[in-house]
Amino acid sequence: MRATFHRISTLASLLLGACAGPVGARQSPDVRPYMLLDIGESMHADSRMEIADLGAAGAFDFETAIEGRWGLAAGVEFDVFENVDARVGWIVRRLRALDIEGLAFEPMTQVEAMGALLWEPMGRETTFGGWVPHLELRLGLVPHTRIPTIFGPGTADIPLKVDASSYWKWGLGAGLSRPMGSGLRFELGAIYEEAFDPAEADSVLVIGPNFQVPTHSEFSPRGWIFTGGFIWSL
Questions:
Q1: Are residues 115 and 143 in contact, defined by beta-carbon separation less than 8 angstroms?
Q2: Of 200, 217, 219, 207, which Cα lies nearest the Cα of 52?
Q3: How far apart are the first and last CA of the chain?
Q4: Hey, how many other C-beta atoms are within 10 angstroms of the C-beta on 73?
Q5: List of residues 6+ apart from 204 with CB closer than 8 A
Q6: What is the mean pLDDT of the chain?
Q7: What SS3 state is found at 105?
Q8: Looking at residue 21, what is its pLDDT?
Q9: Which of 8, 55, 217, 230 gets the most CB atoms within 10 Å of its CB?
Q10: What percent of the chain has pLDDT over 90?
Q11: 186: β partners
Q12: What is the mean pLDDT of residues 58-67?
């Protein structure tokens, strides 16, 4: 827990420190809105579920692929250093974990608060066929998320409401942007994301009027998100 707190504090300090830093020579004071769509993903979740009363004897670990239906990120971008921008915003994603033996998952909506630093290591004037490369460091917070689950699909079909706890995540990525005139830029990017610690949930399997089984679950998502969208100056 101490190591996780240290990692979060370090990333948060980088973001907050950058926002308070001096503005470079080639900077403008404007705030630029952005909107990015998820155009692909390769996500998984390392998961664990256990029958609370049985402990380790009633636990099983599994990995689940995550299928993205759609995702939208929106927020603002502003300059903090020469060749360094900061972004803050929200991400809304519609996801579904692929079924495994004994468990079926329904689509869920996930909301994330996000802050990021983007660095253009070759400068803003260096392009490759009109494209400017950048690197990204991201910190995100996912609030409580409900994961609708069916225990024993096709046999018992017992609904299991899994209310996962909030969790912090980090991301490292890269991308390319291309000016399109009139203050508009088009961007393509890819970022690897991973949770610092698993999201946890305590739930109850209601098998009958007088038979309830408490369960404990943990989910730790990780993987790649591919995005495309626009940034424009006001």
A1: no
A2: 217
A3: 42
A4: 21
A5: 212, 213, 214, 215
A6: 84
A7: strand
A8: 41
A9: 217
A10: 51
A11: 178, 230
A12: 86
5, pLDDT greater than 50: no
Q: Is the pLDDT of residue 91 over 90?
A: yes
Q: Read off the pLDDT of each residue in 25-52 and give the average, rounded to a whole number.
A: 82
Tokens 């996912």 sit on residue = 142
Separation between Cα atoms, residue 56 and residue 67, nearest integer Å: 29
Euclidean distance between CA atoms 223 and 153, whole angstroms? 27
pLDDT at position 81: 86
32-63 b/e with 16+ CB inside 10 Å = b? Answer: bebebebbebebbbbbebbeeeeeeeebeeee
Q: Which residues are CB-contacts of 43 (< 8 A; sequence separation ≥ 6)?
A: 65, 66, 68, 95, 221, 222, 223, 224, 225
Q: How far apart are CA 103 and CA 86, in angstroms?
A: 40
What is the pLDDT, as a whole number, of residue 57?
59
Say which residue the tokens 């993205």 belong to: 68
Domains annotated on the chain, with CATH:
2-232 (2.40.160.20)
The predicted model scores a pTM of 0.80
Contact 52, 216 (CB under 8 A): yes
Cβ pair 213, 50 in contact under 8 A: no
Query: What b/e readout covers 105-116, taking b as 16+ CB neighbours within 10 angstroms?
Result: beebebebebbb
